[in-house]
């Protein structure tokens, strides 16, 4: 440390064990006083902290935090937009598809007329069993509209407009003593005026669905669906070869059609 030697130093007296004083002996330590920092260096430090008293590093960190917050908000807004878009699609699908994946038609067409459509569910029979199945038209999700009528006497769905119809049917059978040779037929046919015999529309033959061990209960199902041309006053039916084996669950057996 350097000191300005122009300033006079105070006399320092050293006292030995004898108590004698030696004023002429040079001191071993020279005191030195520090001076306050200059105004120029203080100004430089103040400028390095910025105009608001914040260092550039701190300002950069705060800026990065703000950018992260805005990026997170933007990502959340995008996710909410995607969820709303998917929800609109789900609502649109719910308006056109039923819980079982079947078409649930709108009751009004563009010209404000009811669309020809029907959906009936299986009737639980306890005494009389017929191969041509009977249905419930006013229970649960069952309905008829647009001039399509259900014929209680023979189990037919009768259409009153010519056109292309999507026709579907599902049956579920429970075999109490199932064996490898167990089988059944599932048939959809139509009776048309001017034709003496019915016209087969769809047919399925199920076999080999049981386990190798015999005398065990087993459930089997068959689903038929197609787009077919129907004429006015056509009557559509469903046949099954083993009606006594039909499941007693309403929604396991159903039958329907709608005009495309």
From TrEMBL:
Record-level Gene Ontology MF annotations: cytokine activity; tumor necrosis factor receptor binding
Gene3D superfamilies from the UniProt entry: 2.60.120.40
One Pfam family here: TNF
InterPro entries noted in UniProt: TNF_dom, Tumour_necrosis_fac-like_dom
Biological process, per Gene Ontology: extrinsic apoptotic signaling pathway via death domain receptors; immune response; notochord development; positive regulation of canonical NF-kappaB signal transduction
Keyword Membrane: yes
Name of this protein: Fas ligand (TNF superfamily, member 6)
């Amino acid at each position: 440390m350097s000191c300005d030697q122009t300033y006079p130093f105070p006399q320092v007296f050293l006292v030995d064990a004898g108590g004698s004083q030696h004023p002429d002996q040079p001191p071993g330590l020279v005191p030195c006083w520090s001076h306050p920092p200059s105004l120029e260096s203080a100004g430089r430090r103040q400028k390095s902290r910025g105009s608001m008293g914040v260092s550039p590093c701190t300002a950069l960190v705060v800026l990065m935090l703000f950018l992260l917050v805005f990026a997170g908000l933007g990502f959340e807004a995008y996710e909410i937009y995607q969820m709303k878009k998917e929800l609109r699609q789900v609502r649109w699908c719910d308006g056109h598809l039923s819980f079982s994946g079947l078409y649930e038609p709108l009751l009004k067409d563009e010209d404000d007329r009811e669309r020809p459509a029907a959906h009936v569910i299986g009737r639980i029979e306890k005494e009389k069993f017929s191969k041509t199945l009977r249905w419930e038209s006013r229970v649960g999700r069952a309905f008829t509209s647009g001039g399509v009528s259900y014929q209680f006497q023979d189990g037919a769905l009768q259409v009153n407009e010519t056109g292309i119809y999507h026709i579907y049917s599902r049956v579920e059978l429970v075999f109490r003593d199932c064996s490898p040779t167990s089988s059944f037929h599932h048939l959809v046919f139509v009776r048309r005026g001017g034709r003496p015999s019915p016209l087969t529309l769809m047919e399925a033959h199920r076999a080999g669905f049981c386990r190798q061990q015999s005398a065990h209960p087993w459930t089997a199902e068959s689903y038929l669906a197609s787009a077919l041309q129907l004429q006015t006053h056509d009557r559509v039916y469903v046949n099954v070869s083993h009606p006594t084996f039909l499941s007693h669950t309403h929604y396991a057996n159903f039958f329907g059609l709608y005009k495309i």
